[in-house]
Predict the structure.
Amino acid sequence: MKLLVVRHGQTQANAEQRYLGAFDLPLNELGVLQAKDIARTLSSDINALYCSPLLRARQTSALISETLGIPSRIAPAFRERNVGVFEGLTQLEAATQFPLLWARNATRHWRDAPDGGESIEEVFLRVAAGLAQLRCDHGSKSILLVAHGFVAKVLRALVSNQSSDFFDWQLGNGHTLELQIPEGWTNCAANFQFNTGHSNSAT
């Protein structure tokens, strides 16, 4: 299966480098332009279009759907990581308001998270389950998924089965990542070996 991952267009929170997570913000003016631009570059051989349930992804997907003439379907497994009390904050604000959480790198450990948020492990498990369902439903078809920055990191790590550059690599707003899901790919999230450095970063 060919999976083309598109990161939604820019929001104002992205422009201000704030943790966005589960905050349901719309695209800003640049984000709309990015979504229209990416829609024009996509080929017509896409068999199905999915998106995260969050507004910024749905808006991006709707513009792609209109251009390609295929319906957009919601895939809840690919919503962005919830970063709890950090949501809506810049890194400086998070460090100032929650110094203990920041000091322990709460966003960067496999089973840790800011208060009220999801751990990396929890995101890996749900995204891997969503990917396995797409593979089951569509076999060797070409699938387009409109999702988020952290979700793109997880998908890339799952398919390549490595995470050494997990926090260094970033998919920009309105950019694409193409992944080939080989025949026989299995959901390996429960046994994934997460191995990376630790320093906080906005998602």
Q: What stands out?
A: The two ends are 27 Å apart (CA to CA). Helices lie at 12-15, 29-41, 55-68, 91-97, 99-103, 120-138, 149-160.
